[in-house]
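User: Assemble these into one structure.

Assistant: Restating your components, then the assembled model:
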Amino acid sequence: MITVTGLTKRYGGFTAVDDVTFTCTPGRVTGFLGPNGAGKTTTMRMMVGLTAPTHGEVTVGGHGFTDIPNPARHVGVLLDASAQHAGRTGREVLVLGARTMGVPDTRVDDMLHLVGLTDAESARRVRDYSLGMRQRLGIANALLGDPSVLILDEPANGLDPAGIRWIRDLLRGFAARGGTVLLSSHLLHEVEQVADDMVLIGHGRIVAAGDKATLLARAHDGVLVEAADPDALAGALREEGLAHRPAGAGLHVDAPALAVGTLAARRGLVLTGLRPDGDGLEDVFFQLTAGTQRDAALPERIAA
Amino acid sequence: MTVQPIAFRPFDLSATPAVPFGRLVSVEVRKMADTRAGRWLLISIGLITAAILGVMLAVVVARDMSVSFGDFLTAVSIPMGILLPVLGILSVTQEFGQRTALTTFTQVPSRMRVFGAKLAAALGLAAGASALSILLAAVAYAGCAVMSDAGADFGAGPSDLARFLLVQALGLAGGIAFGALLLNSAAAIVVLFSVTFVLTGLFELGAQTIGWFADLRPWIDFQAAQGPLALGGLGATEWAQLVVSSLPWLVLPLLIGLRRIRRAEVK
């Protein structure tokens, strides 16, 4: 459980993080989403005590991060996969971590295996690692202490599609076992696939937060419907007075799925597809994070 | 979605005490030796010391000179005086230059404990290096005595060795202080050696040309104040001069550096 309350960071006259409040719940993956420079990394750095907040506080499991004895045993952190000594081998990076937090060296092998770094790869210097390999090493480092909370900044950055799927499954599994996951990204579709809850940040302020379904509902306006007999469906919609227009292989209808489904059932029409339509979260994301003056006009929802 | 059983333990801190200081020290020792730069620095301390002693031994034997054990100790203190400060600098700055401080300070948020562990690790390595160089010097001196038939008189008591170790420790501490002050390997090395060698030269010049400056010098020139340590004659005045002259060149940079590390936003 992570609780962020009124977190603010000012650099001179510039406010990098502005009164940010949200929570991350055990058993759920929370996506922290925002364009570059929105304040995601600064927020996460403040969460783990690397940057002192101007105001506000963060607790993890009810404790300030820096008050947790041996925090790596409770909270796995990956902030920047490239922040490793280029001259150390991948294995050595993990051995240093294991020795610091007091877990057996066998845990190093387990984590290397888990993140898919081979013995040969782990014996190479980090200088020779691709970004994807560094991310895997960073994730292994975060998991080394068997934590119940994960704080990951852009963990999918540099991973190939298979790697992105792998980390998605890993984080889902971690949350399913009761772990708390906070991951940031500037790529919406990365987060959309894995997150249960989302926090959207732009210009240092939270512009939207909540569970994914609620945010998606806000993003969608109507449904996309496809039928075995499109003309019959269009005719039926016209007769019922439901506004619609052609969209791709089917029709866009400005009505809830229930209304369209009911209509089809009553008329005996065979539907081959019925799903929410709209520009999706991406559009909401762009809208919400577009400019400061728009942010002020939009309703703000703070996650409970 | 089906509700999964909660497999994680509740957020219970009772089973995880703080990382013991000794463990932090051993990790810091490991960090000094697990990179190519660190490993070769340590190896070169041994190799250069051995080489200097070898040359000295050859010259002394060839010319049939009369030397004391103290002369050998002085000889080995030269490479140590240069390499140990570098060891001190690197122990602090590599975390910032290579940005591993991000991981280190996340795993151990108490930065002063980490710094303390670095200090202890560096002092431990320096003590080991000093012990090794004393040993090598003793071997060389014994060899010299055997070859020149002069008989050996080590003549160096525990207090001589203690003063030798103190000089090495001060050199190392100076490196750590400037490393902490500048948090950058290259800058710290340049500034430290400028202070050590260039400034000492200027002080020397000043002392020779300005009468009153010669009296002031031992109070403000840290290097000059360390001179009596090597020679052995330390009265109350010399100790006081050592302490006073360490204030601007060791204590102050160390304090500013500690404050910097404590507050620095680790990027």
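Residues 161-176 of chain A form the longest helix (16 residues).
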